[in-house]
Specification:
GO terms for molecular function: phosphatase activity. This protein is an alpha/beta fold. About 30% of the residues lie in helices and about 20% in strands. Strands 3-2-4-1-5-6 form a six-stranded mixed beta sheet, sandwiched between helices. The model has no long low-confidence stretch (mean pLDDT about 95).
Amino acid sequence: MIKTLYLMRHGQTLFNQLHKIQGACDSPLTQQGIDDAKKVGRMFKDKGIIFDHAYSSTQERASDTLELITNQPYQRLKGLKEWNFGVFEGESERLNPKPDPKIGSYGDFFVQYGGESVDDVQQRVNQTLTEIMEQPDANNVLAVSHGGAIHSFVLKWARDHTIHIPNCSAMKFSYDNGVFKYEETIEAD
């Protein structure tokens, strides 16, 4: 049976607005982030999209976004957390290295600075989302996560590794027999 996952990035935060690296650290949603999350919630409602289950990362920017989209009960999961960027947390995005074009990512650059590798993030997020979708009653699922975590998942499952993941966008994936297939990106605007 084919199931549907809406994997959504949290709304814009203060650190997003200030172009600061935010992985394990957190910052509050901006007014735009709040407004966009409400807009996406109305869009889901207008399209008649009802979720069997909802999940968010344990980080507040993700759970705050989910609570603005739907008032249904949800579960917070550590497996959906953002990539840990080590000592780069809270610093200017200008300090990020250039992504390796062969893999479409920073690879293991942040490990030497106390962070995670893209492989570690990808494995964590993929395992968490697979466990969610393998539940027998999980046919239409919303999961709110983060840009880097979602990008690592996209590297595994989407053919186009350059897919842009703006704040408050939802990536729609079909899921069948252990395989995720990217369908489309739904944006707040």
